[in-house]
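Q: Here's a chain of 533 amino acids. Please give me its 3D structure as C-alpha cells.
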Amino acid sequence: MQQELNTSFSDVLRFLRRGLLLALLVSLIAGAAAFIVSTRLPASYRSEAVIVASRSSEFGTAGGGYLASPLDVQVYRTVAESEPVLIAAMKNSGMAEPTQRDVEKFREKVTITISSTGSWQELSSLIKIAYTSPSREEAALVANELSSALVTWDKNRAREDLTNAVTSLEQQIQSLRQQILAQQSQNGPKEQIDNLQIDLVDRLDRVSNLQASLDTASSYLTIIRPAVSPLDQVAPRPVFNTALAILLGIIFSYGILLLRSALDTRLRDVDDLAAVSGLPVLASFPKLPSDTRRLPNEAISYLRTNLLFSMAEAQPKVILVTSSSASEGKSSVSLSLAESFVRNNYRTLLVDADLRKPVIAGEYRISQDRKVTPLERWLRNPYGPNQPAIIPIGGRYTLNVIPSFEPTAQAAELLSAGFRESLDSWRKEYDVIIIDSAPVLAVADTLTIAPLCTGTLLVANQQKTDRRQVRAMVELLKRIGVRMIGVVATHVSREASQGTGYGYGYGNIDENELKKTIIPEAVTATKLTNSGR
C-alpha cells in the first residue's frame, strides 16, 4: 500500500513539474491582462437598504393602521423587481420617462436578498435591496427610492382593499334604500321596513369607518436601515481579479495538460510502461544508430543479470523475445542478449523464429548453403542431420545461431508442428536458448510457441508503442498461461529514464565497443557437440 502511495505521489510531482512552465506562462499572461483591464474599467459602487417584514397577529387592523392580508415574503422580491415599482423608483430618482430597454438595464443593477425561510410562520424577515452605480450618491438614492416604492406598494394594497370594501358597501346601501322605498310605497309591513332601515344604518356606519381608515392604511414593511453613500467600490477589483486570473490560468494549463495526456495513448516514460504492463521493466535502452543492432554492453549485462535472477531455477533457460508490433527493437535485444550470455561462458543458441520477417541471418551475414540448417527445415525434420551456424563473438567465444532465410506464409503451422520437438533437442545441448519471435498482435506465431518457453521477455518502443497495444499483448499472453518475465524499453530518451534505475550503464553507444564483435563475410556451420561452449 505504501509503495502504491509513493508511486502516486511521484507521478503527481512529475505531472506538476512537466506543466510548471506552461502554467507559469499562462497564469502570468492572464494575471497581467486581468490587472490592466481592471484598472481601466470605470468604478462601480453599491449601496443597500434593509427592510423588515413583520407579521401582524391579527389580519385587517394593527396599532399603526389598517393592514391588508399578509403575503409570503418571497412575493415581495417579485414585486420589487416588477415594472411598476421599478418605474416609480426611477421617476422618484429624477430619471426621465423610462423606456422598456431602460427598465431592463435598471433591473440588472438591482439586487434583492431575502433573509428568511420564505414562510409567514416566521414573525419577521429581512429584505435587502441594493443598487449598483458608477456614482456613490446615485447608488444610495436609488436603493432608498426602491425601498420606499416597495413600502408604498404595500400601503396602496391596503388602501385598495379599503376602497373595494367601501364600493361594495355603497352598492349594498343603494340596494337597501331602493327596497325601503318600495316597501313604503306599497304600505308594506312596518316590521320589515324597520329591519331594512337598521341594516341601512349599519352599513352607513361601516362606510364611514372605512372612509376614515383610508388615511391610516399601513404596511407590513418598515425600512430599518436606509442606504448610505458607500466608501469602497465593488468593481472592478484589480487585486482580486488578478489573483483569480492567475488561479484560473494555472487550472486551465494543467487541465489542458490532463486532456492531452488522456488523449495521448503513447508511453510517456519507463514508469508508465511498468504501470501499463503490470510487469517490471528489466532494462531500458536508447535509440540505436541506423547502422547497428548492438545494444551497449553494460546495459545488456544489466538485463542479463536481471534475467538470471528471475529464472535462477530454470535449466536450461529458454527465453522468448517478442513485442506487440514490428520495429520495436526485439531483434536487437535478442542478438545482444545472446552475445552477452556467450561472453559469460554460457552455451547459447539464438533462434530466429520470426518466420515472417527474419533479420538474424542478414545481421550475421550467414550464407544460405547446405551446411547451415534454417529453422524451417529444422521444424519439418527436428531429428534430422541439422546444423546451426557458428558465429565467433569477440575472438574466443562462439554463438550458435539457427537462422531463417526466407519469409514464409505457413509460419504458424510450421511452428505448431515441429517447434516442441526441436526445442527438446536444443535443451540437451545449451544452457540458454534465445528465441526471436514474431510480434504478438500481428500474427499468431508467438502464441503457438510462447507457452513452451521458460519465460517471455516483452520489448516496447517507448516513443512509438501505444499503451493499448501493450495492454492487448499482455492480456493475450496471460490468457494462454505464458510466464512473462518483464519488459524491456527501447528508444528511451534520457529525460524519460532519469531516476528509474532500469538502464544501468545507459549512455551513448561506443563505436569501438561494436568492433569487438567479429562478423565474418560468410558463416558456415560446424558439427554441434554437447561439450562445446
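Q: Can you summarize the key feature?
A: The radius of gyration is 47 Å.
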